[in-house]
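Attaching the record inline, Q. Sequence:
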Amino acid sequence: MTGFVGNLLAPKTIDTTMEGAAGLAIAIHLLLLGLSSAQHSIIARSAFQRIWTRVMPEPIERSTYLLAACVATLVSM
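Structure, as predicted:
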């Protein structure tokens, strides 16, 4: 994220322009925003956490949440 925003060592940065349909770009952006929002909203619910701790041991619950957040951020780049 730092490379993207700060124009450092990233093939595409915040200042890179692309030719193409703006509608497609907006649709992709909204899809990725929805993915990130859903990931955060669903995992934060206590009902999900009760179910999830039956499958995943409680000590690694937070680490799993952080991994999912990192994956969602990576996909959005």
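Residues 22-44 form the longest helix (23 residues). Residues 27-77 form one domain.

More tomorrow.
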